[in-house]
Design goal:
CATH superfamily: Phosphoglycerate mutase-like
Largest sheet: 6 strands, mixed
Helix content: 25-40%
Radius of gyration: 16 Å
Order of helices and strands: EHHEHEHHHEHEE
Strand content: 15-25%
Shape: globular
Number of helices: 7
Oligomer: single chain
Number of strands: 6
CATH architecture: 3-Layer(aba) Sandwich
């Protein structure tokens, strides 16, 4: 049976990552370190035989995908289904501000309550997972027997990792979701499996030794 090789990537760093500020659907660009990471990612993946590069339509992901796609003579194709989780009224706030001003919401978020949705129309983990897996299945089925790249966000990659490893939505996270790390999955019509996760050798040494947070919510 044919399978689709998936290289799934988180966007490069933004200033809001450094500030621990919730981005969600807010369209924040890469900072200087993020552009450097995207360039390093492009070089590291230059020998991968991608037939397509799909990306979240948000600028931080699209700019990262553009660097990767150009090395293969491709143009990244925007896909709304790869957007980060929508955090509603919490977008733009730091973790500390949410803990201080919205302790009940902070608790639900921190303990990963699957059906909790951020105020202001935000997405629950259940809704996010359904959106992400529907998008992944659609794109992977379109490219059976091929190798494609998906450039997205921490929350999106978290949902993919859990699906590939069979982990529950509420299970504590013990894996990293670093900006511009390389992650690989294998998809077939009846399975999704983990090949490798969190490769970052291409990002060392980082300029200025800046380390961005790896939380899924930024």
């Amino acid at each position: 049976m044919y399978a689709t090789r998936l290289t799934v990537l988180r966007h490069g760093e933004t200033d809001w990552n450094l500030d621990t500020r919730i981005q969600g659907h807010t369209d924040i660009p890469l900072n200087a370190a993020g552009h450097w990471q995207a360039a390093r990612l492009s070089k590291a993946l230059a020998t991968d035989a991608f037939t397509a590069v799909y990306t979240s339509d948000l600028e931080r992901a699209h700019a990262t995908a553009l660097a990767v796609a150009r090395a293969h003579g491709l143009q990244p194709m925007p896909e709304v289904g790869l957007r980060e989780r929508f955090f509603g009224a919490l977008e733009g706030l730091t973790w500390a501000e949410i803990e201080t001003n919205h302790p009940e919401h902070a608790l639900h978020w921190r303990t990963r309550v699957p059906d909790w949705a951020p105020p202001g129309g935000g997405e629950s983990l259940q809704v996010l997972r359904a959106r992400v897996l529907d998008t992944l299945n659609t794109l992977a089925a379109r490219h059976l027997g091929e190798h494609i790249a998906l450039v997205a966000h921490g929350g999106v990659l978290d949902a993919m990792y859990r699906a590939a490893t069979g982990l529950d939505l509420a299970a504590p996270r013990s894996w990293l979701l670093k900006n511009a790390a390389i992650n690989r999955l294998l998809w077939s019509p009846d399975s999704l499996s983990l090949v490798c996760w969190g490769e970052t050798a291409h990002l060392e040494p980082a300029p200025g030794a800046t380390t961005s947070r790896d939380e899924t919510t930024t």
